[in-house]
Automatic annotation (TrEMBL):
<keyword id="KW-0472">Membrane</keyword>
<dbReference type="InterPro" id="IPR017907">
    <property type="entry name" value="Znf_RING_CS"/>
</dbReference>
<dbReference type="InterPro" id="IPR018957">
    <property type="entry name" value="Znf_C3HC4_RING-type"/>
</dbReference>
<keyword id="KW-0863">Zinc-finger</keyword>
<dbReference type="GO" id="GO:0012505">
    <property type="term" value="C:endomembrane system"/>
</dbReference>
<dbReference type="GO" id="GO:0016567">
    <property type="term" value="P:protein ubiquitination"/>
</dbReference>
<dbReference type="InterPro" id="IPR038896">
    <property type="entry name" value="RNF170"/>
</dbReference>
<dbReference type="InterPro" id="IPR001841">
    <property type="entry name" value="Znf_RING"/>
</dbReference>
<feature type="transmembrane region" description="Helical">
    <location>
        <begin position="122"/>
        <end position="140"/>
    </location>
</feature>
<keyword id="KW-0812">Transmembrane</keyword>
<keyword id="KW-0862">Zinc</keyword>
<keyword id="KW-1133">Transmembrane helix</keyword>
<dbReference type="Pfam" id="PF00097">
    <property type="entry name" value="zf-C3HC4"/>
</dbReference>
<protein>
    <recommendedName>
        <fullName>E3 ubiquitin-protein ligase RNF170</fullName>
    </recommendedName>
</protein>
<dbReference type="GO" id="GO:0061630">
    <property type="term" value="F:ubiquitin protein ligase activity"/>
</dbReference>
<dbReference type="InterPro" id="IPR010652">
    <property type="entry name" value="DUF1232"/>
</dbReference>
<feature type="transmembrane region" description="Helical">
    <location>
        <begin position="160"/>
        <end position="178"/>
    </location>
</feature>
Length: 185
């Protein structure tokens, strides 16, 4: 889904979306509305989502918004979103922030991989596939750090850790792609 759900309204202005942007918490807002929340709060810190109170470290405008960048107001808001992403997009508050961002990043990554119109860099695409293949080989192979046969369910822990590490790696790769697209880098 590249835009907000149909028949949905911005939770800030309660109107139809104008320059819809998705935050890393997966909520949609008007670009101008979420920037006003940020500007009227502590402008030295990323704003918090008005719905879930998570820190917003990445704003991704919809493709339709990016195509309207020739309009003056739209171009100005998109530049402000790029500035916001440059300022806070690299910020990572540890593993918990990365785990919380996983659903958002993985949904968008899967959509980008399946869509032939998307321009996902070949190097990133190859690294994603390599991480998935390596983790699958490890999980399916009989060689384990903690053998399942001896420890039962606890033996699955190393498999889960390897999968989590690979998923976090893939998500951070895709976050870098989103930052390069929407952060002006």
């Amino acid at each position: 889904m590249d835009g907000p759900p149909e028949n949905d309204l911005c939770s800030i202005c309660h109107s139809n979306f104008n320059i819809p942007c998705q935050a890393n918490c997966s909520h949609w807002f008007c670009g101008g509305c979420i920037l006003q929340v940020w500007e009227h709060g502590a402008a030295l810190h990323p704003c918090k989502c008005p719905l879930c109170r998570r820190e917003i470290t990445l704003l991704v405008p919809s493709e339709a918004s990016s195509r309207q960048s020739h309009m003056v107001n739209t171009a100005e808001i998109l530049r402000s979103i790029e500035r916001y992403n440059r300022q806070y997009g690299e910020r990572s508050n540890g593993v918990m922030q990365r785990v919380q961002d996983l659903p958002f990043l993985l949904r968008r990554l899967l959509r980008d991989i399946r869509d032939p119109q998307r321009t996902l860099p070949v190097v990133i695409r190859a690294r994603v596939y390599l991480a998935m293949v390596v983790s699958a080989i490890y999980v399916l192979s009989p060689v384990d750090i903690i053998p399942e046969g001896l420890l039962g369910v606890i033996g699955l822990l190393d498999d889960l850790i390897i999968v989590l590490i690979c998923v976090l790696h893939v998500a951070s790769l895709y976050r870098a792609v989103l930052l390069s697209r929407h952060g002006g880098s």
